Amino acid sequence: MMDNKALFAAVLLGVLLASPVIAEKLSGYAFVKDETRAMQDDDFANPGLLAMEKGAALFNTPFRPGGKTCAECHGEDGEKLDVQRIAGYPIYDPDSREIVSLQSRVNTCRSRIADDILPTNHPDLIALETFVRHRAQGVPVNVNTAGAERQALLTHGEELYKTRYGLIDMSCHVCHTVYAGQHVRGQKISQGQTNGFPTYRLGTGEMASLNLRITQCMDLMRAEPFPPDSEEMKLLEYYLSARSNGLPIETPAVRY
Amino acid sequence: MLVALLGLITAGTTSAADLSASGLPPIEPYCQWQQTDFMINEPLCGLKGDATRGRAIATDGSRGNCVACHDMPFTDVEGYGTIGPSLAGIGARYPEGYIRLRVVDAKSVNPLSIMPGYYRDPSKIHRPAKMLEGRTFLAAQQVEDVIAFLMTMK
């Protein structure tokens, strides 16, 4: 018979060996197949660049005939935009006490100069988001997490990240933290990092913003997704983005 | 005008037909089950499983999809999962009642399990898709079919 100490040591060793948690923070790039990485790296093959070009065209098109364009303030290629600030989205705005995504920031601009906003995840808005975020390619994600208000929001976001949803009854945490690196039907599970968004998805053949990707994940869990402009969705986006702090932006990434 | 009206009616019927074609049968009453010694020994609702149907359900991405997470000894199914243990020889390794409980509601044994409960009490499901409210992941008959199939893997 094994004594208690030996049994405890054996069980502990087993738990440690079986634990698949990856401590290092890794971009989704590390989890996709070689050919997907090659597609992302090739400017002629990356389908996300089509969305970026569409965004560039929209950036230079007046919202209304004869009206202003984004480019008039921000430069034809968006060169007057501050890439460090782009890398900080979504931001918490202490004045309005709201989490502001890059999409809603673009809409704020549009409403100021043309009273013409696009619904969240409208393909044109995702194209504009892709164009703007691409400006910060290579810049590390840098979401401001300072202060009690932001910390409270992040705590709430983490709770949502760890809540199980839908008939599949999984949380984001179960797959993207505990089982990251394991295979599901031939695909590796990523850590759910956000530095590639908006992303071209091979699985859908379309661009996905982070907001849309969370919706698609929840659909897959056979859960009722949080509405795109809901507080829960904003909290998840904010928490997930802060969780990716330090990872270089890859927009537009190619993912499964 | 009449043609346009007919067109509208047809369009309406098509979308309703699409909904039922997408595989949503009427909601069945939930059969309660008894757990004894970490097993469910009685078949759900007293139903008898069919191993051939069970194999199809286990490998279908929109139904059981066991192969998403489990390695299974098939050569004709694309799928590679390393989340759960291999199911090779499962029928020889565990009694039927043991397997039934894991398929029905693995979390009733291990709350930290990642495995979905394929016949979990719908009232325990948090935030199900609205169109799936009150439903189990698989119907009782489908669960019994899968179990019958798993028991043939010896």
**How far is the first residue's CA from the last residue's CA of chain B?**
65 Å
- How much strand content do the residues of chain A show? 5-15%
CATH superfamily of chain B: Cytochrome c-like domain
Q: What do we call the CATH homologous superfamily of chain A?
A: Cytochrome c-like domain
Please provide the ordered H/E string of secondary-structure elements of chain B: HHHHH
Structural class of chain A: mainly alpha
* The top level CATH class name of chain B: Mainly Alpha
Strand content of chain B: under 5%
What's the structural domain tally of chain B? 1
Determine and state the CATH class of chain A.
Mainly Alpha
Helix content of chain B: 25-40%
Total helical elements of chain A: 11
Instruction: State the total count of DSSP E strands of chain B.
Output: 0
CATH topology of chain B: the name is: Cytochrome Bc1 Complex, Chain D, domain 2
C-alpha Rg of chain A (nearest Å): 20 Å
Greatest interface and its participating residue counts:
A-B, 21 and 26 residues
Can you name the CATH architecture of chain A? Orthogonal Bundle
| Main sheet: strands, sense, barrel of chain A | 3 strands, mixed
Largest sheet of chain B: none
Give me a quick take on this structure:
The complex is a heterodimer of chains A (256) and B (154). Chain A has 256 residues and is mainly alpha-helical.
Question: What can you tell me about this protein's structure?
Answer:
The complex is a heterodimer of chains A (256) and B (154). Chain A has 256 residues and is mainly alpha-helical. Chain A has one domain (22-255): Cytochrome Bc1 Complex, Chain D, domain 2. Chain A is built from eleven helices and seven strands. Chain A has a three-stranded mixed beta sheet. A two-stranded antiparallel sheet of chain A has the order 1-2. Chain A has a two-stranded antiparallel sheet with strand order 3-4. In chain A, strand 1 (91-93) and strand 2 form a beta hairpin. Chain A is globular. The relative contact order of chain A is 0.18. The mean pLDDT of chain A is 92. Chain B has one domain: Cytochrome c-like domain (Cytochrome Bc1 Complex, Chain D, domain 2, Orthogonal Bundle), CATH 1.10.760.10. Chain B contains five helices and no strands. In chain B, helix 2 packs across helix 5 (140-152) and helix 4 (96-105) packs across helix 5. At the A-B interface, helix 9 and strand 3 of A face loops of B.
